[in-house]
Amino acid sequence: MKSDSFLIRTMQADELPIAVGWASNEGWNPGWHDAECYFKADPNGFFIGYLNDQPIATLSAVRYNDTFGFIGYYIVHPDYRGKGYGLQIWKAGMQYLKGCTIGLDGVVEQQDNYRSFGFQLAYRNHRFEGSSQDTKKLSVEHESSILPLSQINQQAVEEYAARFFPAQRLAFDQAWLTQADALSLGIVEQECVQGVGVIRKVQQGFKIGPLWAETPEYAESLMRALMKWAGSHQLIYLDVAEKSTNGLALAKEHNMRSVFETARMYTAPVESLPFEQLYGVTSFEIG
Questions:
Q1: Which of 20, 53, 86, 228 has the smallest set of CB atoms within 10 Å of its CB?
Q2: Residue 2 above 70 pLDDT?
C-alpha cells in the first residue's frame, strides 16, 4: 500500500516499541510488556506507516476471528498530523478487518470521527487513579482461596476469561496472564474459579486489569492482594466500564479519581458482557 513516498506495511515485532513509546507520549501509560503480549493476539494485525523511511503512523487492527476485530494504537506523529496520513493507515486497518464487527476505545476528541465510519457508542470507560495503602497493615479476606494463576487449572481459567470478551483469544490471554513484571491471581472456592486479577508495572505506577470477580467481596480481596504486591503508597490505575456499578463502587471505596475517559464503540451490536462481575477492563488498546 503506497501513496507517493508514504508506505504502509505490516509491523514487525521489533517495531512494536515505536507504537508503545508513542502511546506513552500521548499519556496512555502502557505497561512494560504490553507490546509482546499484544503481538501474540494477531501478528498480522499491526500496521506502521513510513514517510521517506521515517515511521510516522501506527495502527493495530487485531483480528480475533472471522467475525470480530479491535482497533487501537491509532497514532500519527505530531509533526505529521492533519496531512491525511492517519486516514490512509486507518483505511488499511479497516480493510484488514473487513467482514468483522469492529470495536475500539475512542478518546473523546476522536469519537465523532469514528461515528462517521459507522461506530456507535456502547458505553464509556473511566481510568481511575489512586494509591496503594500501607500494605503492611492491609488485610486480605479469602487469602487462603487466592492462588497464583499458574496453580489453577488452565482450562478453568480460559473458560472463565471467555465470559468477559466478545471473542475467544487464547494466545493473548496466555501471554497476558503470564507476563513478566506482573502478578496474576485467581480465587478458587469449591473447585470453581470465583475471580481473576492481574497487576502489572506500567510507565508510571501499576495498572490492574483485568479484574473479574463473582462478588464484590471477592473483587475487594483480589484488589487488596494485588496492591500488596505493588507495595505501599504506589500509584495504582484501574480502568472501569461505566456500566459496571460494582466496579465504580470499588474505585470509590479506594478513593480513586477518574483521570481519563474513552468510549467503547462498535460497528454492530455485540452480546452484552457480565458487567457486574467485570471490575477492571483488560486493555484500551486491544479490548
A1: 53
A2: no
Q: For residues 74 and 48, what is the distance between their CA atoms, to the nearest angstrom?
A: 10
Per-residue pLDDT tens digits for 7-27: 999 999 999 999 999 999 998
Judge contact between 206 and 237, C-beta under 8 A. Answer: yes
Measured between alpha carbons, how far is 141 from 120 in angstroms, rounded to an integer? 40
Spatial contact of 131 and 233, defined as CB atoms under 8 Å apart? yes
On average, the pLDDT of the chain sits at 94
C-alpha angle 88-93-98 in degrees, rounded to nearest 5: 120
Residue 215 CB partners (closer than 8 Å, separation 6+)? 194
Question: Which residue type does 189 have?
Answer: E
Average pLDDT over residues 53-65: 96
**Mean pLDDT to the nearest integer, 134-139:** 77
CB count within 10 Å of CB 245 equals 12
Q: DSSP secondary-structure letter at 31?
A: B
For residue 57, CA distances in Å to 47, 50, 81, 159, 217 come to 8, 7, 9, 36, 44
Cell of 166: 466478545
Does the pLDDT at position 165 exceed 60?
yes
Buried b (16+ CB within 10 A) or exposed e, 60-76: bbbbbeeebbbbbbbbb
Each residue's pLDDT tens digit, 208-218: 999 999 999 99
Report which of 234, 169, 171 is spatially closest to residue 200, judged by C-alpha positions. Answer: 234
The counts of H helices and E strands in the chain are 8, 14
Mean pLDDT to the nearest integer, 222-250: 97
Q: What is the pTM of this model?
A: 0.94
Instruction: Return the bridge partners of 27, or none.
Output: none
- Quickly count: other Cβ atoms within 10 Å of residue 101's Cβ: 16
Beta pairing class for 192-201 and 206-213: antiparallel
